[in-house]
Specification:
This protein is an alpha/beta fold. It has two domains: about 200 residues, Hen1, N-terminal domain (c-terminal autoproteolytic domain of nucleoporin nup98); about 210 residues, Rossmann fold, CATH 3.40.50. It is built from 15 helices and 14 strands. Helix 6 packs across helix 8 and helix 7 runs parallel beside helix 9.
């Protein structure tokens, strides 16, 4: 089983420093069921390729692993595809061979860790049962990969037997090496939908660790989790609950260490914020509206009371929040005509999605601060370039105001899941640039009581397309 990683970074030999593997040396690492050989077929400043070659011992594999493929006949444990395909064996090999790079460490050139480099990955044989090429693309493309996928026939001499579940896959992306290795570590066994060892509780921790920063926002998060955990319902449920923890879109859900006084202020602020958002949506004349990051549906419930809004859509990354939303709406008891006005679906704001297109207005209430700032460009393209609603009402906390809270200061954020809290000037600079890039105009409005020095606790941008 062979996997290669190639870069054409401006000094491609830097790949050796990142991997902590010298290009001039062949290295071999023992696995429980064989060996992994690491070598460089090519290494120069223009192009460097590192290869992982797995040499699986079929006898050791039977002795040291759980029952594997080929259960249908007596020699199935000995005669199967495991030595020849990318599977959980490859994930283990990646983690052992490249542990330093996976942990984001580089002793000699630490500055390389956060550099996004152009990579091409080739997986010689990748199984994808119950999903095929479509599944491969659904798992990798949302992470920015371009794919070349070749499906193999069962037997070239017997074409009538049809195609197999095996593919040769090439992936290209400009990305940090640490992220690339984490993606491969999780997605290869998820595609294979099997593990060579017994899956227990600690697999959840591995998944959360390696999926940190990307899995919680992946549109196929649920499917990846279930397949990675070989469809064990109890473990999958626990993992998904942990992935969804802390992904909130409403900033009143703060940690217990913030005083009750602050919570009450924030709840009042949130009510003011939603009323102002609703007011701006009504002023826009919108009839077809989407609440992006709808949470438990407070704004949706307010819009339902207004006849102006004929079609109301809610999208959230958290399935549990959408479940709460239905409960709060009393979905099962709702009148059929009311139910026809509503559509709810799960999705992420950093991935292009046709379901986001065609709306008169979009509300994005206290959402962007939960994203890493380096993801905001993707968010901008998804919402303003591709979905392109006529009006966008967007709110976010004003970081300057935090000093007004008793238990906060200028450098402490209101919620542990916030990645940033912008000043008024930072917010306006960003919003003006978004408007200029995408043919929108933008106006700003404070939310809440305004202090002369630090402004209001929250801030709003009202975008309008084409004016």
């Amino acid at each position: 089983m062979l996997l290669t990683i190639t870069t054409t970074y401006k000094n491609a030999t830097d790949l050796g420093f990142l991997l902590h593997k010298h290009p001039a040396k062949l290295q071999t690492i023992d696995l429980a069921v064989g060996k992994v050989h690491i070598f460089y077929p090519e290494s120069n400043e223009e192009k460097t390729t590192v290869a992982l070659l797995l040499d699986i011992d079929s006898i050791d594999m039977v002795r040291g692993t759980r029952n594997l493929s080929g259960r249908e006949f007596s020699l199935g444990q000995y005669v199967n595809d495991r030595p020849y395909v990318a599977s959980s064996f490859m994930s283990v090999a990646i983690s052992k061979a490249f542990s330093t790079a996976m942990n984001g460490k580089c002793k000699n050139k630490p500055e390389l860790v956060d550099v996004e480099m152009p990579f091409e990955v080739k997986i010689s044989v990748l199984p994808a049962p119950k999903g095929g090429e479509l599944l491969i693309r659904k798992l990798f493309e949302p992470l920015g990969y371009q794919l070349d996928v070749e499906r193999h026939q069962l037997d070239e001499k017997f074409i009538e037997w049809g195609d197999s579940k095996y593919y040769t896959v090439s992936l290209t992306n400009t990305i940090r090496l640490q992220d690339l290795l984490s993606h491969l570590y999780v997605l290869i066994p998820a595609l294979d939908n099997d593990k060579h060892y017994f899956v227990s509780q600690n697999e959840i921790d591995k998944l959360l660790e390696k999926g940190k920063g990307w899995l919680e926002n992946h549109p196929e998060k649920e499917q990846i989790t279930k397949r990675y955990l070989i469809n064990l319902n109890s473990l999958s449920r626990q993992a998904l609950e942990k992935l969804n923890e802390g992904i909130e879109t409403e900033d009143e859900d703060v940690e217990d260490d913030i005083s009750q006084e602050i919570k009450e202020k924030k709840e009042t602020l949130h009510q003011q914020r939603l009323k102002l958002v609703l007011e701006k949506l009504k002023e826009s004349g919108a009839k077809n509206v989407i609440d992006l990051g709808c949470g438990e549906g407070k704004l949706i419930r307010m819009m339902l009371k207004e006849k102006q809004f004929q079609n109301i859509t809610g999208m959230d990354i958290s399935y549990s929040e959408l479940t709460k939303c239905k409960e709060r709406l009393h979905w099962d008891e709702m009148a059929p005509k009311q139910k026809e006005r509503i559509d709810l679906f799960q999705g992420a704001l950093t991935y292009k999605d046709k379901r986001l297109e065609g709306f008169d207005a979009a509300a994005i209430v206290e959402v962007i601060e939960h994203m890493d700032e380096n993801r905001l460009k993707s968010f901008e393209r998804v919402v303003f370039e591709f979905a392109k609603p006529k009006n966008v009402i967007l709110t976010t906390p004003n970081g300057e105001y935090n000093v007004m809270y008793e238990n906060l200061d200028a450098v402490t954020m209101r919620h542990t899941d916030h990645r940033f809290e912008w000043t008024r000037q930072e917010f306006e600079n960003w919003a003006n640039q978004v408007a200029e890039n995408n043919n929108y105009t933008v106006q700003f409005s404070p939310i809440g009581e305004v202090d002369e020095k630090v402004g209001a606790p929250s801030q709003m941008a009202i975008f309008e397309y084409g004016n």
